[in-house]
């Protein structure tokens, strides 16, 4: 979708939605890692990191990403500004 | 002369494998190639009716494999296109009646006298699919511009590689250019973005396919001057035969308003 359509407040096309969903599904199919397993890993990561650092667990994102060559697990873990209490 | 074995498969059912097999076979025959189409969908015979040869069946693939007839006796020659032949599937047996090595044997017996052997695969990833790809030199994967069909195509592409029959080539069937232009159907580019495979054909949704299937006369028999789908089939046949053919321009003939809208959408 172009920036003009976004500016005009057009909704996302159904084909854009389809493509995004398809990409997600294929990443999991190809690596044989289920979305449920990713959710568990995410909980584990939050638990481990939170022992040492003040993090914002609501905004932790764990994703599989994939290129032709490799699959990788990508985690984004936002830290809270004030780390002193840990 | 040694035939090339081309298997048409998909994973998902109903995406157009049988239609494509009949039309690619017919298009190759119209180019002067000697072609035999084999229906590997044992138990769900269909290629015979799509090709319009259902009244001429005496023996079938399982009869050959089980030695009830010679291979030639089960091979029907199409009188409208004398270069074109069909080996029908058995209707009352199941996929287990044939093994992958049976398929290799049958194809090897045909290689000397044919240019192309086109195999119509059943849906699924089990025995019928394994039978169909066992003798293949080239596998064509058919999909529709729809999430479930593309997901299955991705799985099939992986299985073909694993069986060392890769790389497969993709045919996108039933594209509706107007829906793509409105952003309500995945485009050819979208599909190629997500699947790691090279494209060999794009076939538009075309009423003439149903009409010609009603009559048992593959649209490709009309040659390239028939419908748009018939041209698309001819092009797949030419590319299969190693020719460089540009992809048809399927963008809809749009009015001023639509053109303005697509300009706004940045397409
Ligand atoms: N490009 C197309 N345009 C319109 N109808 C199509 C097209 N391709 C296939 N069809 C129709 O879709 C149905 C399923 O096709 P078929 O070739 O039997 O699929 P498969 O062998 O994969 O199960 C048939 O009714 C066929 O006529
Ligand atoms: Mg079929």
As a whole number of angstroms, the C-alpha radius of gyration of chain A is 17 Å
Oligomer: heterodimer
Q: Look at the helices and sheets of chain B and give the structural class.
A: alpha/beta
Number of domains of chain A: 1
Q: What's the overall geometry of chain A?
A: flat
Task: Name the strands of the widest sheet of chain B in spatial order.
Answer: 3-4-2-5-1-6-7-8
CATH class of chain B: Alpha Beta
Number of beta-strand segments of chain B: 8
Please mark out the parts of chain B with pLDDT under 50 across 5 or more consecutive residues, or reply none: none
What's the pLDDT, averaged over the residues of chain A? 85
Class by SSE composition of chain A: alpha+beta
CATH architecture field of chain B: 3-Layer(aba) Sandwich
Number of strands of chain A: 2
Low-confidence stretches of chain A: none
Count structural domains of chain B.
Answer: 1
Using CB atoms under 8 Å apart, which protein chain pair has the greatest interface?
A-B, 21 and 22 residues
State the major sheet of chain B: 8 strands, mixed
Beta-strand residue percentage of chain B: 15-25%
